[in-house]
Design goal:
Number of helices: 16
Mean pLDDT: 79
Largest sheet: 6 strands, mixed, barrel
Strand content: 15-25%
Number of strands: 19
Low-confidence stretches: none
Strand order of the largest sheet: 3-4-12-7-11-10
Radius of gyration: 33 Å
Distance between the termini: 27 Å
Oligomer: single chain
Helix content: 40-55%
Structural class: alpha+beta
Length: about 500
Amino acid sequence: MYQLLLTFKYLTHKVMPLLAALAVTLCTAMVLIVWSVMGGFLTTFLQSGKTLIGDVLISYPTTGFAHYDDLCRRLEADPMVEAAAPIIESFGMLQLPLSGTPRTGMLWGVDPDSFDRVVKFRDSLWWQPLDKPMPTDTKGIDLRLDPDWKSRLKEVRDWGNALAVPREGSPNDARAALVVGVMMGGYNERLSGGVLDPYIFLPGRKATLSVVPLDGRGTSLSVQSRILPIANQFHTGLFELDANLTLLRLDELQAMLYMDEAERVQRDAAGNIVTRPDPETGQPRPVMIRNPARVTTVLVKAKPGITEPTLQARVREIYAEFARANQGQISPPPDSEDKNLQVQTWKSRHGTMIGAIEKEIGLMLFLFGIISLTAVFLVLAIFWAMVSEKTKDIGVLRAIGASRRGVAGLWLSYGLAIGLVGAILGGIAALLIVGNINPIHEWLGRQFGLVVWDPQIYYFSRIPSDMDPIRAMIVLVGGVLSSVAGALIPALKAAYMDPVRSLRFE
């Protein structure tokens, strides 16, 4: 009982121990904030990547593969697969409205319906009417809430859903259209709360798209350009996609890249045109063949409860069966010598970057962990001074029957109390800072021009965070243990003091 009473007395009547508690608070908050932001960065990176990728993808870059409809049917018939979507991944040159210089970026040809089943693409369309403001839009300044814009936003939402815009003068006839990221070209200003204010409202305007098609051997052909309307804009939260990706209807991009179904000249392995004599004239004429349509990638979504590695293994098996059924007409199966064909998860596709992020998180935690050892030494120094100051009190306790274990327990319980106070305060501080880290960052930018988080460098337009309860518990327990560890040596010193000499201490 005397241990609890003295611990409470020392804790509430001494200033020095509060400095030790402050050290534990700062160290705990620092480590927890760093871990939450870095861990949130990795978590958001993985989640945002899957927003437009799905769980597993089959890809054969550049030339692509045929009979993808058969592959998608085989995939969707499997009990592990929720949906599959064929796409073309390519690069294009885009001349945006009122922009002087064309920009090079990623270009995806997608089928809107199948693409939406895999990645919920239509949920990412930005320009559509809202019934209530976003949680971060506390002032309700979002243009999408304006009643005067409701009919217009409904129209461009429908355009984006179909990736098509009605032709002028023919409302029942639609033409293929583009959907670009909200950060492309700098047409939207980001206001507080993540709200976008357009300098120029892009939907309905036209852009010029240029691509370079390749033949079956990967040789570039003449540049193809088309003037296409912009249907809408999408938002994933991943800056690289929002600033550099353009979506177009699959059939339109297939036609531009000569990857659509068509009759074409047959060539031999050396690239020469194959000919045969004309039955009537006897003159050689090119041999024409019917080439099926091709895509470069098929995205696959897993059913609930199916992990990505499990789905990846099953997709490899399905593709091998598909390749054997279409022997000689498509690329070899993934276990063959053809290294161009890849069956990947989002994580394995970006494994190098994800591995670097994980190592950076570990290194940062190690460094901040070393810095946090200052709390241990500060507690040790303060408790050592207090033990020296309370030598006479320790002698009294020993004289009236307190054991060495009891005296040591007094100082250890005192260290435990300091650790608990510091850890709790540090956890509260970290929770408040992490929960308001974007408003804090925006305030620093307004007041001091300090921009720490550049989305062009860190991928995301807002600072991600993830206050994981398990991580928080590990850090808080570590803060308490560091305080107890700092009190250990002073506690042993107090326990082994000679009571007689302690009573004579002046």
